Amino acid sequence: MKNFSTLNEELQKIANEELGEVPSRIHEDLAAIRLWLQHQPHLKYRDDDQFLLQFLRGSKYSMEKAKTKLDLYYSLKSKYPEMLNLSNVDDERFRQVCKLGTFLALPNPVNGVGPRIVLGRYCYPTNKYSVEDIFRPACALHEILLAQDPYACVCGIVYIVDFKEATASHFLQMTPNFCKKLVSFLEKSMPLRIKSVYYINTSGAAQQFFKILFPFFSQKLRERVHVMGDDLTEMLKDLSPQCLPKDYGGNLPSLEELVLDFNKKWDSCREFFQENVNCGTDETLRPGKPLDIDGLFGVGGSFRQLIVD
């Protein structure tokens, strides 16, 4: 019995050509990944078709890559639950951060049938919120995309990160350890392809921060990064007005309106996130050696050191 959403004709064509999807073989592929999961005593995992299918799609149907991503996904959620394993969308502090609109997914995909755009902004007071507070809904947003968004699942994600309101205090929160956690989760474990990253309205301080962040990126991701100041010409050549808010010269409603609309999704996904309580890893049950998360990705330097260099 089929328990996953059917793609429209255009998306199915992209899935077939870019991801190597064979619709008639999906049930067989799901059975194979489930069989592996059943032999992993350390993993407490979601078993629904839609969730598992995305790990196959995000790995271009490489079973070994899908296994690695699934294992790392749950290992990171157990290692860093305060940021990565949201279970209560009604938490008061969480809702306060959501209202700030620091991160949201824009409603129209690129060119009508392309990647989903995720917008991030440093529009929060650092004396009230930590960077973990801010990125908790940001990371949870990706789980909503994973569960509900066929455009993100098949075509990937385009990030726009706006540094217009970023201050030195924001950058000081972005420690190497935090950058490691963020990149590990979004690039290494999340089965959503990162197609492009636009860093806009960047300052000299942002350029210094990138010296910490970029070493954690894979070479492929570094090649997809675009850094620009307040001249957005390069980005606007790639992204049409139909998929951008009016704040950036687009035809979509204002950011204020888009944030209000996007935040309704947390209510509709309440049960989905409640189920996170039961998911994760128990390293004492892992076959072989426990996974050394800290040793997987190197950490070095700090923003404060770079500022004075």
From TrEMBL:
InterPro entries reported in the protein's UniProt record: CRAL-TRIO_dom, CRAL-TRIO_dom_sf, CRAL/TRIO_N_dom, CRAL/TRIO_N_dom_sf
* Residues in coiled coil: none
Q: Which SUPFAM superfamilies match?
A: CRAL/TRIO domain, CRAL/TRIO N-terminal domain
Q: SMART domains given for it?
A: CRAL_TRIO_N (SM01100), SEC14 (SM00516)
Q: Name one GO molecular function term.
A: phosphatidylinositol bisphosphate binding
One cellular component term from this protein's GO annotations in UniProt: membrane
Question: What is the name attached to this protein's record?
Answer: Uncharacterized protein
